[in-house]
Design brief:
Elements (H helix, E strand, L loop, with lengths): L8 H52 L14 E2 L1 H8 L14 H9 L1 E4 L4 E4 L9 E4 L2 E3 L33 E5 L1 E5 L6 E5 L7 E5 L15 E6 L4 E5 L5 E3 L7 E5 L1
Length: about 260
């Protein structure tokens, strides 16, 4: 009876090396395919948000978009939150599936109260101008920018206009992915947050007073942008503009869309 031949150590090492090489070749492609799949889901969520906004504007009779918040575009009044959610009755449509930081907060429901300078779990609460529901996109519609002091903007930043009606043309962006940078926060913190990026979502803290870390520095790819006509367009990061997220001033908070 013949003895069965076993693999030698050299042969095993060759097989392991080949497998490792194949994984090194395939992993970037698999990661890219997964990113594209999640980007497709992100675009689908934004389209559903657009349906909710269109339903609200249609019921208004004058095609007016629901109001924005007086704070930042990722917080919206309760009436706007309910209008967007009405498209599917699922709060998950209000956050990109790649945004790991916001998913837990948006699904749970978080209310911001500027008088308390903090967030807490949602309870039945009236929608005051300075309070809002946290979402995982920037809502750019229904905002009064007439009193903003644009001269206080950082160099390189540009003014933006907020669409007030569904029938408006020109600047038609109404909701976009989060890609932003905040510096000089009240607690001394500074950070940059990017959703669509090579390597996945990142929330990066950096030292206030030093060189600002922009989304491009972290490898941002771009943002999905919901238009007033209901379509969703992909904007590469080089095609976006830097805009103040809130009233320009000492708290330097800027988004790219």
């Amino acid at each position: 009876m013949k003895n069965k031949r076993a693999f030698t150590l050299v042969e095993l090492l060759v097989v392991i090396s080949i497998i490792a090489l194949l994984l090194a070749i395939l992993m970037p492609s698999l990661q890219k395919a997964r990113e594209l799949a999640r980007r497709t889901t992100c675009a689908s969520y934004l389209k559903q948000c657009g349906v909710g906004l269109a339903m609200y504007a249609g019921s208004d009779g004058r095609e007016r978009l629901p109001l924005a918040n007086g704070y930042k575009p990722d917080y919206i009044p309760m009436v706007t939150y309910n209008a967007i959610k009405s498209a599917s009755n699922d709060p998950r449509i209000m956050v990109c599936p790649l945004n790991k930081n916001f998913q837990k907060h948006v699904v749970r429901g978080v209310v911001y109260d500027s008088s308390l300078d903090g967030m807490y779990d949602m309870v039945p609460y009236p929608a005051y101008w300075d309070r809002g529901m946290l979402i995982g996109y920037f809502y750019l519609g229904g905002k009064d920018l007439s009193k903003w002091v644009w001269a206080a903007m950082e160099p390189g930043a540009e003014k933006w206009t907020s669409p007030l009606k569904m029938s408006e043309r020109g600047n038609t962006q109404v909701m976009v992915d989060i890609s932003h940078r905040a510096a000089g926060a009240g607690d001394g913190g500074s950070w940059t947050e990017v959703v669509h990026r090579r390597g996945g979502y990142v929330f990066h803290h950096w030292t206030a007073g030093g060189r600002a870390v922009e989304p491009k520095d972290l490898g941002a790819d771009g943002v999905d942008s919901l238009q007033l006509d209901g379509s969703v367009r992909w904007k590469a990061i080089n095609d976006t503009k830097k805009h103040p997220r809130s009233q320009p001033g000492p708290y330097r908070s800027y988004g790219w869309w």
